[in-house]
């Protein structure tokens, strides 16, 4: 990393920095770089940095007060604790559900989410103090539940090795969900951690069409590279889960696309697939519709109808998708626990999911989608 070529924006707090760059900055919320003084509500800011290796991206380095996030008891998520060392994500997935969280920082959920990345630079140290407390219960900690822990910024900051080491040393099981092939760097470390605690690895791979993948997930590694990472993890003995989500109506839900996806996942050595239909929360919805109007304008009216009253695809569409994909999951022997669409998995429930409903498995040729979408 050419650290001598970085530029630091604005005065640092408690750290030495280089002089302020002479290039202009503009107001956050407009999809462009912002100076630290303009970042309303960003506590613990140390400095904001740009480097040639990450053109167009500004890293805002902050000192976090805590690393562990408690998941509300009412949540249906099968874990109680999460860690998110980054906010914002250069993967720039158009559909990302976390986009709206940037609005809490007075940044927009579009280009700012992709280009203004918050880095909690002291996460491993803060985590070490938290899990060393006698009251720490050593419950599963999920990594990658909000923004990706192996996005490109991790190549610069290397926070994950410290996080993994701390959790393992304190007997804490962990799960990792990512789209980043940088995961391969830490596979040996995760394998060592797995000797002492449970370690779950999941790779998110939604699109198996190169052209579509490059436009809807422009900052992510290719599908081929992610499948290779699945294989590398499987070769080390991990039972890798692939998240085939979101499945997008009229874009990635054809029989051809789904069959290609599941065959490739199986060949990569994954153990199971979890799938889900596209959901569009506020923030993501507007950004996705802007992309859709530009790339697939003929689909925009249909999407507006489907997501007019809810962030989720219609119940009818989800049932249709279930009938279409479940026989393929069984065909490729990729069924694991809790892999139904929008699972109601209770925390700690590791039981097998019920056998496939006869109605779901009845047909590989469901009714025309036109009636549903």
Please explain how this structure is put together.
By secondary structure, the chain is an alpha/beta fold. It has one domain (64-85, 126-371): pyruvate-formate lyase- activating enzyme, CATH 3.80.30. Helices cover 30% and strands 14% of the residues. It has helices at 111-115, 123-131, 153-157, 160-169, 183-193, 210-216, 223-235, 255-267, 284-295, 300-306, 315-331, 358-361, and strands spanning 7-9, 45-50, 58-62, 69-70, 81-83, 86-87, 116-120, 141-143, 174-178, 199-204, 241-247, 272-277. Helix 8 links the parallel strand 11 and strand 12 (272-277). The termini are far apart. GO terms for molecular function: catalytic activity; iron-sulfur cluster binding; metal ion binding.
**Count of alpha and pi helical runs:** 12
Strand order of the largest sheet: 4-5-8-9-10-11-12
What would you call the shape? globular
* Secondary-structure element pattern, one letter each: EEEEEEHEHEHHEHEHHEHEHHHH
Quaternary: single chain
**Beta-strand content:** 5-15%
CATH class: Alpha Beta
- Compute the gyration radius: what is it? 21 Å
Number of domains: 1
CATH architecture: Alpha-Beta Horseshoe
CATH topology: pyruvate-formate lyase- activating enzyme
Q: Find the structural class using helix and strand composition.
A: alpha/beta
- The average pLDDT is 82
């Amino acid at each position: 990393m050419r650290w001598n070529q970085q530029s630091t924006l604005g005065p640092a707090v408690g750290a030495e920095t280089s002089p302020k760059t002479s290039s202009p900055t503009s107001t956050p919320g407009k999809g462009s770089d912002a100076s630290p003084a303009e970042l309303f509500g960003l506590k613990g800011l140390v400095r904001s940095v740009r480097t040639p290796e990450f053109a167009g991206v500004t890293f805002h380095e902050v000192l976090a007060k805590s690393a562990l996030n408690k998941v509300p008891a009412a949540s249906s998520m099968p874990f109680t604790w999460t860690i998110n060392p980054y906010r914002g994500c250069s993967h720039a997935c158009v559909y990302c559900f976390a986009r709206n969280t940037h609005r809490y920082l007075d940044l927009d959920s579009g280009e700012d989410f992709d280009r203004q990345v918050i880095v909690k630079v002291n996460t491993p140290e803060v985590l070490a103090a938290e899990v060393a407390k006698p009251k720490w219960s050593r419950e599963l900690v999920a990594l990658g539940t909000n923004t990706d822990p192996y996005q490109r910024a991790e190549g610069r900051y290397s926070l994950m090795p410290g996080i993994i080491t701390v959790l393992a040393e304190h007997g804490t099981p962990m799960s990792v969900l990512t789209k980043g092939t940088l995961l391969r760097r830490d596979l040996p470390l995760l394998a060592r951690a797995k000797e002492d605690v449970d370690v779950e690895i999941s790779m998110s791979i939604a699109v198996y069409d190169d052209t579509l993948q490059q436009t809807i997930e422009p900052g992510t590694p290719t599908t081929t590279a992610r499948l290779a990472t699945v294989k590398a993890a499987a070769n080390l003995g991990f039972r890798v889960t692939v998240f085939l989500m979101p499945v997008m109506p009229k874009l990635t839900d054809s029989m051809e696309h789904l069959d290609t996806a599941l065959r490739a996942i199986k060949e990569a050595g994954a153990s199971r697939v979890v799938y889900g239909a596209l959901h569009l929360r506020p923030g993501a919805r507007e950004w996705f519709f802007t992309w859709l109007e530009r790339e697939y304008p003929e689909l925009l009216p249909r999407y507006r109808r489907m997501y007019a009253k809810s962030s989720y695809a219609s119940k009818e569409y989800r049932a249709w998708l279930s009938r279409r994909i479940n026989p393929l999951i069984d065909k490729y022997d990729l069924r694991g626990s809790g892999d139904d669409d929008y699972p109601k998995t209770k925390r700690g429930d590791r039981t097998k999911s019920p056998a496939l409903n006869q109605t779901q498995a009845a047909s590989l040729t469901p009714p025309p989608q036109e009636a549903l979408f």
